[in-house]
Design a protein that fits this description.
Layout lengths: L1 E7 L2 E6 L11 E9 L2 H8 L15 E8 L11 E4 L9 H4 L25 E4 L2 H4 E3 L6 H5 L4 H13 L6 E5 L3 H10 L6 E6 L2 H9 L4 E4 L4 H8 L5 E6 L4 H10 E9 L11 H4 L5 E3 L8 H9 L9 E6 L3 H9 L1 H4 L3 E5 L3
Parallel strand pairs: 8-9, 8-11, 9-10, 11-12, 12-13, 14-15
Antiparallel strand pairs: 1-2, 3-4, 3-6, 3-15, 4-5, 5-7
Helix pairs in contact: 5-6
């Protein structure tokens, strides 16, 4: 089969590799029908994730069709169309029993495209299938569904749920990339008074408005002052960091009201200063987290009923064999306007 293989920092190749096979009775083999590229994949290609060894097939998000199932698999069978989650769950360890699948200690967690071969291929082996793939209704489009493999559960769980968004809240999302836009959309499920999106790119701010943000502001045009003006100087109830750089995290802590919550979603590659000398007296709660994907079944139901606007985030489509071109377009999002790119098997 063909797959995108990490060769060394700065170099990947779409090349022939051996087909995956069943390695454990809990595995399934999935023929990939649709896949996408994550910002984390770009970090891997840059060499920022040293656990990813040369020769690894990248990718951790896919929709496909089960072609083979191990003897212990009970929830799906060959021929079933499924969503492949970015998180695998053994189902037995302490954290899986608490539905904290991202912290799995039984061989799961974030493994696809990280410590085992991933989804940016024609076929993928998925471990712990009973808790790691989800049957899809026929009415749900593959490209729409693939965004529920990672960005929507991440935005919902690590941003909206950890941030405790409630009816009547003022919510600020700093960073209107794919994760931030999914946070805007899923915040709307809780009827906040307003959602404010902050970014440097006008196209992304426009996308945020189309997904329900009542106000938008460029990051270089005093977003803190806008939040103050809209809240009578109080600050936002919930502020989500969806960029992953020290400056935006500190901006978030300055925009939150006393007693408010800062939910960090962004993946940080450098230390960020935590100004406890200012935050402690204001009763600020700061949360972090890796997605667990425990919300995926609920989000799939919302998608099937037209309640999640996932299709609006896909700006570019390619066939699987155009993987390297898709990476180039996604990596130059400022120039190309890419939000999410989707790749599909030849029809």
């Amino acid at each position: 089969m063909k797959a995108l293989v990490f060769q060394e920092p700065g170099r990947t190749t779409w090349k022939d590799v051996p087909d995956p096979g069943i390695g454990d009775a809990s595995d399934v083999i999935v023929r990939v029908d649709a896949v996408t590229i994550c910002g984390t994949d770009l970090h891997i290609v840059k060499g920022d994730v040293p656990e990813v060894a040369p020769g690894r097939v990248l990718g951790h998000e896919a929709v496909g069709t089960v072609v083979e199932a191990g003897g212990d698999v009970r929830t799906v069978r060959p021929g079933d169309r499924v969503l492949v989650s970015c998180i695998s769950a053994c189902g037995r360890c302490r954290f899986c029993r608490e539905a904290r699948y991202g912290q799995c200690r039984g061989g799961g967690g974030w493994v696809l495209g990280h410590t085992i071969d991933g989804t940016q291929a024609e076929y993928v082996r998925v471990p712990f299938a009973d808790l790691s793939v989800y049957p899809l209704p026929n009415a749900v489009d593959s490209v729409d569904a693939v965004l529920l493999a990672d960005i929507f559960p991440t935005a919902y769980e690590v941003g909206v749920r950890n941030g405790g968004v409630s009816p009547g809240d003022t919510v600020v999302v700093v960073g209107a990339g794919p994760i931030g836009l999914a946070a805007v959309a899923t915040s709307r499920l809780y009827s906040p008074e307003r959602v404010i999106a902050v970014d440097l790119a006008d196209a992304r701010l426009e996308a945020a408005r189309s997904l329900g943000a009542e106000a938008t502001v460029r990051a270089d045009e005093e977003p803190q002052q806008l939040v103050a003006d809209l809240t009578d100087g109080l600050g936002a109830d919930v502020v989500m960091e969806a960029v992953g750089v020290p400056e935006t995290f500190e901006t978030c802590t300055r925009m939150v009201r006393p007693g408010g919550r800062v939910a960090n979603i962004g993946v940080h590659g450098k230390p960020a200063t935590l100004h406890l000398e200012d935050l402690w007296i204001r009763d600020i709660t700061v949360t972090t987290g890796l997605v667990d994907t425990s919300s995926t079944p609920m989000l799939l139901r919302m998608l099937a009923n037209g309640r999640l606007p996932s299709a609006e985030l896909v700006t570019h489509r390619f066939e699987l064999e155009q993987m390297e071109e898709a990476y180039d377009v996604f990596s130059r999002a400022t120039d190309t306007g890419a939000l999410k790119v989707a790749l599909h098997a030849p029809r």
